[in-house]
Each structure stands twice: as structure tokens, then as C-alpha cells.
Description:
The chain is of the alpha/beta class. It is elongated. The strands form five sheets. A six-stranded mixed sheet has the order 1-2-5-4-3-10. It has a five-stranded parallel sheet with strand order 12-13-11-16-17, with helices on both faces. About 35% of the residues are buried. The protein is built from 19 helices and 17 strands.
Amino acid sequence: xxxxxxxxxxxxxxxxxxxxxxxxxxxRHCHWKSSASIPEALAGRTDLDLLVxxxxxxxxxxxxxxxxxxxxxxxxxxxxxxxEDWLGLDPASRRLIHLHVYYELVLGEELVKNHRLPVxxxxxxxxxxxxxxxxxRPELELAILTVRALLKYREDAFLRDLLPFxxxxxxxxxxxxxxxxLLGRTTVEAVRGTVERHLSMLPAxxxxxxxxxxxxxxxxxxxxxxxxxxxxxALRPYRRRGELALLPVRARxxxxxxxxxxxxxxxxxxxxxxxxxxxxxxxxxxxxxxVIGVDGAGKSTIVAELVNTFGWRVNVMTLYLxxxxxxxxxxxxxxxxxxxxRLSAWLQRRLGAQSRVSRIAARASEVSAxxxxxxxxxxxxxxxxxxxxxxxxxxxxFFDRYPMPALRVxxxxxxxxxxPLTTDGGWLSRRLAQRERAIYRRIPAPETxxxxxxxxxxxxxxxxxVPEALDLKATALAGLGDGDATMVIVDASAPLDxxxxxxxxAVWDRL
Length: 511
């Protein structure tokens, strides 16, 4: 996004309240890096990287907690000492706000962030207002930006720059643009003076050499590499780990972020959404939330929007518990049952219903239907158990539909068993019916249930097929769960944006 486009973004009201509250509480803070991206951060499009006075950490937690923010935990490969993640929800826009909070300045190369610079007090004591919030003076931000850029310029980037392989390593374009933007507010000589006065652990010649190369447009790979090595030598006392101790950390972190880390979870986990597990999880634990409603109430649309909102920063999984998207075994049983039913109907037309062959085919069709029902029940059970397991591991799991055996829809149970116990199909059909009920009874009730209510007339307007079934389901849901703390009752006939705000806020309140 260009700088001009960024300036046109409107800040979110919830973000502005955070900075007002911190100023009101007298908590020293600043947005310590990437000040060019502040308009996007204020609009909830990217993180807010806040440096906060370590001595006021408890006050900070109480202040943002009172505004509805919650602590989240990063994947182990992204956890850093002295760094916390706080997420909040802006109700009007349905956007998550990510406060990336630093009590200690930890930075360095990608994946490991191996340097801790004790300059927090310097940055917090020398701030200016930029886009309405506190940021370090541009001279300080340029010095820290130079350290970040050089420490990230590793040997692989140098080799890609040096060898004509087509792909360039180089300095990221965003870094170069940021240097130019900050130099528009100060000078290289002012940076030199600030480094010598306030950041004595940094070699001023390295900082000035880097800024001069970038501002002139002559970024020569060997020169950047030499500056990086000189900087690393000066910062050796501020390393968190020695070089040998760093090797296994780099390897573990790179492996945990690779696509191979997903293989162990198995295909069942990738029913709909392909999760990586590398996002954040609520510090208070995950949640499993089921969304149910009459056809046409917007279940799938709402689940998709919840994933868009929370999946930006949180580990999210969606699981469909209807029968329209079966697993391999359930799909095979559906095909077999349809074939047996059609064969039975054809034989009855040709030979008559009382012929021996027709009766055998009818019995086989009934058994095939029973096998299908059991396979679909097992499909739902596996997904329900998978969802609960992931929620126990800190994920936010959304179920699209959920078995509700206690809820009658006419003569049937909602998304639950359908085989009658009394049947002419013989002992095998009765055994399959018993098996189906036993499976559904093992499925645990959802922790939180979002009920989308829609009156029968509105349901018929949205879904014209099977109006009787729509009426029965709408009537059954109308009498469900008022006053039950585990349920969120939503009027699905309201405008979609209003429904989404209601559901999103309810989910957030339960995290």
C-alpha cells in the first residue's frame, strides 16, 4: 500500500482509545519501529509495535484489559523474552487489533532475534508525535532501523545478490523506502550526533555508512556485508546466545515454520481449512463454537466471516458437521446407498414389489442406507472430536452445523440419528440403528452454540425447496435456549452486517 493510500485510512476508534488511555495513565510508550506504516496500523491493517515502560507492565495490562484487549500466546518459534501479544476487537469494523508489546528491545535476524539492546529508556524519553501517536525521534528510529536491516542481511541474501540467479536477496524495498521517509525528517549528520550521545554501544561509522549508501542508491552487497560484520562485532556483548548455541535454534525455528511441520496432523485436520498452527492462541485457552440455524439463515457465510476476522492472527479451524461434504468412507457409503436404492426401485417396477428378487433388493437397500447413516455419524464424530482436541490445544474452532439429538424437528432429530429402531430389515438393520444412536450420544455438546433464528416465512423466501422442513426447523429453533449462558441467540432476519457484528462480538467475549 502506498504512503498516499495509507494516509487516507481512517483510524479505528478502539485504537485511538488505547493511546488515550495510556496517556491518561501516564504509561510511557511509543510505536518504536516502522513509523511509515502507522496509518495502516491505526486502521487495523497491521500490527502496532509498542515499546512500553517495563516498570509499568502491570499497569499496561490493566489499562488495555479494561478496554477489552486479551493476551494471546505466539507460536514457540515466534516467542521472544520481554514481548507480549494483545489482541482487541473493534466492534464497528469487526477488525482485530494487534498490539505487539515490547518491554525489552529484542531484534536481529529473521527467526531468532538474537540481540537485546538496552536502549528502551532512551527511546521512551525522546519521542515526538507522528500521525497523532508517540514515536522515537527520527534520528533514533533511523539508527535502530539500520541495526535491524543489517542484522537481517545474512549470508544467503549476500550470495543471492552476488550470484546471477535471477532472484535478488538485497535489502527489502520497504526498508529502503522507510530510510528515505525518515531522512526526509532529519539528516545523516543529526543521526551521527544522536548515536554518539545516546547510543554509544552502536558504531556511528556503520550507521552513517549504511544510511549514506541507501540515500545515494549505491547499495553494494560486499559493502553491506562488511557493515553487518562490523556491527555484529560491536554488538557481541548484547547477543542472547553464542553462535554455536544459535545453530540448533535456527534449525528448529526454520523447521517449525516449514510446510513439513503440518504433515504430522494428518488429513482429517484439513477437512476444509488448511491450518498451519503458526498463529496465536488465547492465553485463556481455545474455544469450540458451533453455528446452527435453519437453511437460509447464513450459517456458512457467518462462519466464513468469522474465519476472516479471527484467522488474521489466531489459529482457526472450520469443520463442517453436515452430510453434504463427506469424508472418503462416508462418500463411498452414500454412493453405494444411492445405487442400491435405485436398483431396488427399478426391480420393483420391472418385477413387482412382491417378487423374491425385489424383496432381497429392498432389504439390501435398507442395509445400505443403514451403513450410510453410520458412516456419516462416524464422520461427524471424528470432526467433532478433532475440533474439541484442537480447542483444548488453544485453537478457535468453528463448527458449521452440529448434531443436536435433544432437538426434535418433526419426527427427526436435528443433524442426528435418523434410522428407526423398529424395522423390517432384520437384526442387521436394527444393529446399525443402535450403532448410529450410540455414536451420536458420544459426541460432546458444543461449548458455545450460536443459534441463528429465522421465522418460517423469511426462511421460505430464502430457501424455496422443502418448505415444510424449513417450517419445522425454524419452529424448533425458536424455542431453543433463552437464558442459557452457553448459547448466543441471533435474529438472522436482521441485515447481514448487524448479524455479523453481533456474532463476532459474542465470540470475542467468550475467548
